[in-house]
Structure formats: C-alpha cells, structure tokens
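Feature request, filed as a ticket because there's no other form

It would be nice if the structure record came with a short human-readable summary line next to the tokens. Right now we just get the raw output. Example of a typical job, pasted below so the devs can see what we mean:
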Amino acid sequence: MATRYLYLARHGAADAFGELTDAGYEQAGLLGRRLAGLPVDAVWHSMLPRAAASARELARHLPDVPVAEAAELIDHVPYVPDADEMPRAWAGFFDGFDSGEAAAGKRTAEALVARFAKTPERTGPDSHEVLVTHAYPIAWLVRDALEAPYVRWLGLDSANTGLTVIEYRAGLPPTLVMFNDLSHLTGDLRWTGFRAAARP
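Raw output as currently delivered:
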C-alpha cells in the first residue's frame, strides 16, 4: 500500500475581516517555496477567504498541482468537552455553544478524519497532499494521529503557515513527523497567530 503524507498548514496572517495581510501573503509564498521540492499531488483548502488565498499563493510555487476546496477543512470547534473533563481555564471559551452547534462540529471533525486521516486506497506511488486550514482542524488531526483523548485538541495551537506533517502507513499507527515548524519563515514573520504573551 502507498503511504499518505499530509502537510497541514494554518493560513497566513489575516486582518479582522478574515482577509490575508501583506505578511500573510509573504508567509504563504515562503511556505510554497519550502514545499516546491516535494511531489505534491494536491492542495486542499477551506472555503474561508484567508485559507483559499493562502492556498492560491503557495500553489504559485507548485506548477500544475490542482488546488481545490474541501468542506471538511472549515474552521470549527471539533469537540466541546463535558464540564468534568474541561480544563478550568477553557470553561468560558465554550459559553454559548448549544448542543446543535456542538453536534455539527463533531460531525465535521468526523468527516475530516474519515476523508484525510487514513492510508490511500491504492497501491503504487505515495500520496502527498497539502491541507491549508485553521488551527482547530490541525489540532484535531494531530490529536487523532496520537490517539489522544478528545479534550486534548485544546492547547494544540498553530502559528500562521506553521507546517505540521503526518504520515499514514498501512498496518501502522500514524506518525507525527513534525508539528508547527516555522523554519521557512524569517524571524519577523514567525509566531503570528498566537497571543503576544506566547511569543518567545
């Protein structure tokens, strides 16, 4: 069976309206240059403008690679913890989430895993796919790869265009190759997307 490599990236830095900033375009371009040496089969992105624009910008460095929207990559809360499993610091974050919203987020998370978190259904060459998405879907895929409790998606944050790689091989658990790597970015472009207090 072929091996599936998922290259997960959060979109570039965006403004309050969800549109890429100049820094976000530069981040996406630098990520595209980093990925240019890989045999990328496809670039998938969420339908939100900041992700779609990031995908188009990085794909300029991947000629002839198809770029398409994937509904499963939408920014969403994948799991709302019960009160007894919720970290105290996160309790207020979920104020206002009703059961319908929580169920919809859970369905989207399940669809995300079902579509992308598995070995390719083929023999022959390996699969290399870039997913341009948001911090929460990346956290959920990492949590799934590590078979961690559902609540552990909390606290797995990604910088803008931080690169996470997960490898799926038949008969083996997924391998988290790297998480939130920023080595393609210059110093002034690193750590956007985090609270200022979290930046080194």
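Something like this underneath would help us a lot:
DSSP finds four helices and six strands in the chain.
The radius of gyration is 17 Å.
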